[in-house]
Structures are given as C-alpha cells and as structure tokens.
Amino acid sequence: MWQFVKYSLATLVGICLFFVFALLLLAGVGASMGGDEKEYVVKEQSILHLDLNRPFLENASTEDNPLDDLPNPFFSSTDKLGLIQVLSALERARVDSNIKGVYLDVSFPMAGYAKLTEVRNALAKFKKSGKFVYAYANSYSEKGYFVASVADVVYLNPAGLLDFNGVSVQYMFFKKAFDKLEIEPLVFRVGQFKSAVEPFIREDMSPENKMQTLSFIQSINKELFQKISESRGISAAKLNTIADSLQAFDPKNAERLGMVKLGYLDEFEAKLKSLTGKKVSDELKYVRLGDYLHAKNPIPSVEGNNKIAVLVAEGEIVGTKGGDGSIGSDDFIKELKKLRENKSVKAIVLRIDSPGGSSLASDIMWREIELTKKVKPVITSMSDYAASGGYYMAMGTDVIVAQPTTITGSIGIFAQWLNLDNFFKNKLGITQDHVNTHAHSNFMTSASALTDFEKSVVQNMVNQGYASFTSKAAQGRKMSLAKLQSLAGGRVWTGVQAKQIGLVDELGGLDRAIEIAADRAKLPPASYKVAVYPKAKSFLDELISTAFSESSMESRFVQSNMPWTKSIWELDRMKKREGFLALMPFMMELE
Questions:
Q1: Which of 114, 174, 268, 537 could be a cystine partner for 136, CB 3.0 to 4.6 Å?
Q2: Going along 132-219, which residue ranges are E strands?
Q3: In this structure, what DSSP letter does residue 508 have?
Q4: pLDDT in tens, 464-510
Q5: Dihedral pair phi/psi, residue 377, rounded to 5°
Q6: If residue 415 lies in a helix (H) or strand (E), which one and from where to where?
Q7: pLDDT tens for residues 89-120?
Q8: Are 238 and 254 in contact (CB under 8 A)?
Q9: Is 410 left (phi over 0), alpha (psi -120 to 50) or beta?
Q10: What is the sign of the dihedral through the CA atoms of 172, 176, 180 and 181?
C-alpha cells in the first residue's frame, strides 16, 4: 500500500520534472555550463564577502547557479556552501595582498557547531595576518553570533535581534499519534542510552536520555561561551547571566554589554571604506566566495606528486547504495580502494559527518578501513557528527581528531519494525493474508506482529551486533572491553568529553588531522598536496541528481502545504529504517 501511494505520487512529480528540465535545457542552462571558466581577477583593496547563510556541506561545487533568481518548486536547492572551500578561501585570502579584509555575513548559518568552529578558527587565523574581519547582520541566531563574535567589530542593525539564550535540544515524539492510528512500533535495543527509538515508544524523554542530553549540551555551551568570552572580553559568568536574563535580545542592551555595535548597513560600509582607504563616494570592491576560488591561487603550488587524500563520508549510512546526503558502503569502498591502491596517496584523512545508520553497512566499511590502514595511515577527522555508525567507521583508524563540539559516541545497536495490521484493517479497511511453507516464512518481511519466539530471535541478533560493535571499538581504542562498554550503551558524548574518556585522541579540525596524516606518512611540511574525494558535483550534475532522486521527490512533498503527503513520506522514512541500525537520535534538533 505504502509503495503504491509513494510511487504514484513520485510518478506525477517525475512527469512534471521531465517537462521542467526539458524547458531548462532548451533555455540554454546546459550550454551555460559548458566552456572553459575564465580566471577571476582580484582587484587591489578588495574585501572578501563571506556569506555563510546557506546549507553547509563538507565539499561543494564552486560553480554559480544560474537558477538562483528563478522560481524553483521542483528542484532541491543547489546553492550550498562547502566547508572545505570556505577554509581554502580564507587561507588564500590570508596571504593575498589584494584582499584587505573580510565582510562576514553570518545571520543564520545552516550548519552544526563543529563546522562553524572550523570556520571561526580559520577567521581567527586570518585576523592574525593583520587584516580585518567585520561582521554585519540585521539579526543573529545563536550560531550566527558564535561565528560573528570572532570579528573585530560585530555590527547589528539597531532594529534587529540578537538571539542569545544558550543551547537547547528538542525531540519530537510520535507515540500518541501511533496509538491513535493503531500502529505498533516493535523495538529492540541494547543500552539504556540508545534513545533513537524513544520517539516511537515514549511521549517524552527517558531519565537516561535527559541526563546524557543535558551533559552534552552543557559541554557544547561551555565551549561556545568560552570562545565568545575570549573574543569579546566578557567573562563566561557574565555571558551566562546575560543568557539567563535574555538581556541581549534588546539591541541597546547588547551594545551596552559589549556584545555588538549598533549600526545600519550604510554606516557599516562607511567603516569598510575607511579601512580600505576609500572616499565616501567610492564603491567597495567585494569579492564573492565562488569568484575568489576561481582567482589565481596566491599560495605557491607544491612540487611532486605526494598527496594526502581527504575522503568525505557525509550523511546517514543507508546501506550498500547511497545517494545525495547519504553514505552507501559500495560507493565508499570503491573510493577507498582507489586511494589505497594509488601510490601517490601517502595517507588518508577520513572526514566523517554522520549520525550513523545501517549497522551492516557500517561494519562493511569498517573492514575496508582495517585493510587500508595496513597499507597507509588512516586518520579520522570528525565534523558535526560522528556517532553510532559514524563512530563505527572511525574507531579502527590510526588517530581520531574531533572538534570540542563534535557529537560522537552513541555506541549501540537497535532494531525496529512497524506492525501495521490494525492500522490497515481498522483505519483503511485493508486486510492481509498469507500462505507459508514453514512456521516463520514471512519473518521480517511483513508489517505484522512478531511472535514471542521471533522477538527473541531479533533481540539475540541485536545483542550479537552490540557485542561485535563494542569488541571492535575496544580493539581499535586499545582499551579493555569492560571499560569500553562502560562508555557505550548508546551514550552520546561531545568531542571534549570523548577526548577525556579515550574515545577520541585529539581535539582539532581538519587541518590538524591532515598534519597528523603527513607526520605518520613522514612527509615534511609543504611537500604534499591535499586532494578531496569524491569530487564535488558540478551544478548540472547536482541539478540532475537532486531532480530525479527519490530523496528529492520526497523533500518536495514534505515541503508542500499538504499535511497528508508529509505524513506519508514520514511514515515511509520510518519504515526504511526498519532493520538493524547503529544510529544516534535522528530527530534531535540542536540550536
């Protein structure tokens, strides 16, 4: 039933997409992608305009999107930021004599705190060159202000808003809805902290989940406030008072407290003109990120063929075949084998941004990593998330590096099914029947209840999966199984907490992981190139893949204003996650 409804809707969308895409091609979109790109020329006294108010990926194309100004109801947004590209631009601009400073536009960045910490650290390094960083926004979110606080001056529109009240997490629970719909979730897990199943079996957070969540958000909040304190010269204690009393929400209070400087955009730009030696009547020379990355690189190229490969693993681990925003073990292994066999690649940095997913796919990738590190060093760099299946990938590498605000751990396994018998029968009037050759021929294949014996079989399989996960983690971290299991049970940790308990080796960003990889490969500084894999998709490839992928079709309906379509896709997504999973609480919203 669900497959019929889903694919009927998908067919209708596909027909619309076909005609829209054909029109775009006829209009010359494809032609606009062809030809050689011209090198962008950076003029003297230029300012790098860093607009961070877009979704962040680890690695994204720098091509312009010709559809930016067109209504776009069918295609997922291709206007994304690549963290690696942002870091590269800041490193180039730091030594570029034509770049005098950065205009930081970071109202509402769409990334986790670990990625934003990478950007913030790169901005701090940029400032040490003697160049300026000035931020301006009409309003700042908590994340936006965290990044902006590193600037020399943080401008805020006098009528704007500074959201500064600490870190929070929100979970959504479906139990009451399932009760009303007569849908029975069947859940099997190991570990009292494995809370990914709670949205289906509870109406609120368990005491264990509340405890671990409070622990890791307090750890994140402490790190954020300490960084802001250092940059703005306001004590952490004072920042806590400001957050508790919501004092910063009043722009005048925020200025009085030293958090921002109030000013309109013209006043901000007048300051930039004075910093670049321009007259009031002169135009500022802004350089966009995409343009700047197409300019001549001021950093001399490295001689020789030695490479450090950065292999990006980003998204939920969905099985053997991945897609946009997900990791498939087949695709990952294909890339890793190429790098292992490439003699010019001397070491590999595995850049992980994943909450986990399929336990089988996680184990398959773990095995390939084990084989690879016998040939050359493999270092992990954790981004926003490297939890559950994401940690499964990391645990066997030579060294694990995480940001203090990375969310990791969640070492545990669970399984879930949905018993839809009563929902189909009582709500939709649909009944099912079956014929078996053996007592359990339809075991794990139908949306029906499980017998007690079948439940015991599933639980035993989950127990075995957990034993395998924890034993391999203990082996990789070189600690006793008893100690590892005391840190597991599905519990989530921040990077700084994970470092303290031995699940992580070092705190730092991608640059530190690359340094460690070079050191392990005995490559002196400036003797190697850094290459990122897989290659970022071109605009046209991104357009095609997002247009015709199943995930894109789902997102189009979810974003529609028809509640019934959203419910269909949500339930289908839950059913896709049936089986054995190493996944952290995927409903978590960290703000």
A1: 268
A2: 132-140, 153-162, 169-170, 184-189
A3: -
A4: 999 999 999 999 999 999 999 999 999 999 999 999 999 999 999 99
A5: -60, 140
A6: strand 414-419
A7: 999 999 999 999 999 999 999 999 999 999 99
A8: no
A9: left
A10: positive
CA dist 550 → 6, 13, 75, 464 (Å) = 10, 10, 12, 33
128: DSSP letter: T
Residue 392 makes CB contacts below 8 A (sequence gap 6+) with 356, 359, 362, 363, 365, 366, 469, 472, 473, 582
pLDDT higher than threshold 90 for residue 561: no
**Tokens encoding 522:** 């005995």
* Residues forming the active site: 194, 388
d(CA 447, CA 453): 17
Half-sphere exposure of 289 (CA within 13 A, CB side): 25
Report the helix count and the strand count for the chain, using DSSP H and E: 23, 24
Helix (H) or strand (E) holding 401: strand 399-402
Amino acid at 223: E
Please say if the pLDDT value at position 349 is more than 90.
Answer: yes
Closest residue by Cα to residue 570 from 562, 414, 448, 209: 562
How many CB atoms lie under 10 A from the CB of residue 534?
14
**26 contact partners, CB below 8 Å, separation of at least 6:** none
Q: What angle do CA 160, 161, 164 make, to 5 degrees?
A: 160
Contact 414, 194 (CB under 8 A): yes
Residues 6+ apart with CB under 8 A from 405: 112, 113, 114, 117, 220, 223, 224, 494, 495, 496
Both ends of the chain: CA-CA distance in Å?
37
The DSSP secondary structure of 477-503, one letter per residue, reads: HT--HHHHHHH-TT-EEEHHHHHHHTS
Closest C-alpha to 516, from 226, 229, 231, 310: 310
Distances (CA, A) of 531 to 98, 158, 365, 570: 26, 44, 21, 37
- pTM: predicted TM-score of the whole model, two decimal places: 0.88
Measured distance CA(179)–CA(325) in Å, rounded: 32
Residue 21's nearest CA partner among 80, 60, 81, 73 is 73
Report d(CA 208, CA 305) in Å as an integer.
51
Rounded to whole angstroms, the Cα distance separating 423 from 429 reads 8
Rounded distance between C-alpha atoms, residue 72 and residue 77, angstroms: 8
- Confidence grade of residue 566 (pLDDT, cut at 50, 70, 90): very low
* Confidence bin at 171 (pLDDT 50/70/90): confident
